[in-house]
Write a structure and sequence with these properties.
The chain has 386 residues and is of the alpha/beta class. The chain has 13 helices and 14 strands. The strands form two sheets. Strands 6, 7, 8, 9, 10, 11, 12, 13 and 14 form a nine-stranded mixed beta sheet that branches. The protein has a five-stranded parallel beta sheet with strand order 2-1-3-4-5, with helices on both faces.
Length: 386
């Protein structure tokens, strides 16, 4: 080998070694993921189980080598604060502690504050049930939309229970109003009638006047678009008012914690429509529940659909990053269309930055939720461009 060739070879070898060294250093750098869950405020009930689901997801992913060869480090933040304060928490995790992705399970007001903060610069996975319509850049929704929870379910339940008249009640904010607004069209298409539609503040703790209106309307069924404590108070009073024996209730945000508050004794003729129940008997759901119980023991926070959605957020981040080969927001957005994984909810596939997923309808037995109907791979009904 002459000197010229040797110098060229040595230069190429040095460059390759430097590149390998850079890649090794990159792989050794933890992937920091900000997880924003309610640790205070009315939704803090879901905080412990959401935290546990995040920890389980990260432990399982790290055991398989992490995401793109990088071990994941969780940075928890409180999203139970008012939107402006939650955004400041997110800013510290993102800019201060260098989070490269964000997973959030919180209300829509906080989501709006975060999308305004991020402006598409960091991938943001929003995981809970929500009202639909979010198309901000690099924002990805894993949660159920009204199109999924109600469009197939209302016609089925209307026929199954021979319902003629529906009454709608929700909290007076975007999720309650948009959910009920969508439901009206589904009810009409099912050949039934809406005989009442009302919205109450979160602070309302006496539903006697609402229950009297429901009774006097002759409704066969009530769509309950109330959240947390409002849902618990309403549903307990509903049974106390003597309506539970003859009137069907359907909720799209009644999960295990809310049901525990309501009490199974007050849940006669109550149905819930969700993407996940802890009582699912599919192999992947059973495996997840067993892993959760083994990891956190007999005192584990109660599994529920909102908390489990955080676990799904990590699965989608992994699926999209693997497809993109990168974690940059713009590259993840391009790779989002068709990204898919198999998890506790079944096979989940992203289209238009929302997911197609199975929807389960459950009634209530003395043991809790009992899934009675499955709608497979239901589209989100959204049309965001990736």
């Amino acid at each position: 080998m002459n000197r010229r060739h040797f110098v060229s070879f040595a230069s190429t070898l040095a460059g390759a070694c430097a590149a390998l060294g850079t890649q090794a250093a990159f792989a050794a750098t933890p992937l920091k993921v900000a997880v924003l869950i309610p640790q205070s405020g009315p939704a803090s009930l879901f905080g412990p189980s959401a935290k546990a689901c995040a920890e389980l997801a990260v432990e399982q992913l790290n055991a398989r080598g992490g995401i793109l060869g990088r071990k994941i480090e969780i940075l928890f933040g409180d999203s139970g604060l008012p939107p402006a304060e939650a955004a400041q928490t997110a800013l510290k995790l993102w800019k201060g502690l260098k989070a490269e992705a964000v997973i959030g399970m919180h209300d829509s007001a906080v989501r709006g504050a975060l999308t305004a903060l991020f402006k598409g610069q960091v991938p943001y996975f929003y995981t809970p049930v929500y009202e639909g319509g979010e198309c901000s850049a690099a924002t990805f929704m894993n949660g159920e939309t009204p199109s999924q929870q109600l469009e197939p379910v209302i016609p089925w339940l209307t026929a199954e229970r021979k319902i003629r008249k529906w009454y709608l009640i929700g909290n007076d904010y975007i999720w309650g109003r948009n959910t009920n607004g969508a439901a009206k069209g589904y009810i009409t298409k099912a050949g039934a009638q809406v005989v009442g539609d009302e919205y109450v503040a979160f602070s309302v703790d006496n539903f006697d006047s609402s229950l009297a209106r429901i009774r006097d309307s002759g409704a066969d069924a009530v769509l309950v678009s109330l959240v947390g404590g409002s849902s618990v108070t309403f549903n307990k009073a509903f049974a106390g008012f003597g309506l539970a024996d003859k009137t069907v209730r359907l909720g799209s945000l009644i999960e295990e914690n809310t049901l525990a508050g309501i009490g199974v004794e007050n849940a006669k003729n109550l149905y819930a429509s969700m993407g996940y129940f802890a009582s699912l008997t599919t192999p992947d759901a059973v495996a997840f529940a067993q892993a959760y119980a083994k990891r956190f023991g007999p005192k584990a926070p109660m599994l529920n659909g909102l908390a489990e959605s955080v676990y799904e957020g990590f699965l989608m981040l992994d699926a999209m990053a693997t497809k993109a080969g990168d974690l940059a927001a713009a590259k993840l957005e391009r790779a989002s269309e068709g990204a898919s994984y198999k998890g506790p909810r079944g096979t989940v596939t992203m289209h238009a930055r929302h997911v197609d997923q199975d929807i389960f309808v459950a009634d209530v037995t003395p043991q809790g939720f009992r899934p009675v109907k499955t709608f497979a791979h239901v589209p989100s009904g959204q049309s965001c461009k990736a």
